[in-house]
Amino acid sequence: MTKTERVLRRAREQGVLWADDLKEDIPARYLRRLAERGELERVGRGLYRHPDAPISEHHSLALIGARYPDVRICLLSALQFHDLTTQWPRKVWIAREPGDWTPTASPVELEVVRMSGASFTEGVETHEVEGVPINVFAPAKTIADCFKFRGKVGTDTAIEALRSYVRSGVGPVDDLYHFADVCSVQTVMRPYIEATV
């Protein structure tokens, strides 16, 4: 199997390729040449995909997961991923710990929020989008985050997500109480939870 065939097969299987993942086997300039010939499509700095690979509605999350595997998808992007909102965010919302670097060469526009301690580490799920693993906060954790960051996303968005969560039965109501405690928003969330249940 030729080098080109190996790269194209991997691009078809994986969805999105990051040049750094292949640098031991294949130099970045080789990927650029394949893109110039139309055999690969450049979708961001160092990111390539097969032109025939399907694109999902969460393509921007796959690009972020491929480029920055340690970030966590949060707030509006996580709500949209879990089908808990009618909004479609223009930016991908990610969480970073205080003091962590902020991604600058992102293939999509980012909105970065800072979380620390259990608020950053609890409730993280790993999902696969277009062959790329992404870290996204669980539905109940995302709703608690929306109440915590209601100044950024709006209280109406948090309430809409809470109602969608309860109506759709995505998870147990006890998870809402747990993550409200983790995010220190129990007094804010409790009346809304009790009114919705």
TrEMBL record:
<dbReference type="InterPro" id="IPR025159">
    <property type="entry name" value="AbiEi_N"/>
</dbReference>
<dbReference type="Pfam" id="PF13338">
    <property type="entry name" value="AbiEi_4"/>
</dbReference>
<feature type="domain" description="AbiEi antitoxin N-terminal">
    <location>
        <begin position="25"/>
        <end position="49"/>
    </location>
</feature>
<protein>
    <submittedName>
        <fullName>Transcriptional regulator of viral defense system</fullName>
    </submittedName>
</protein>
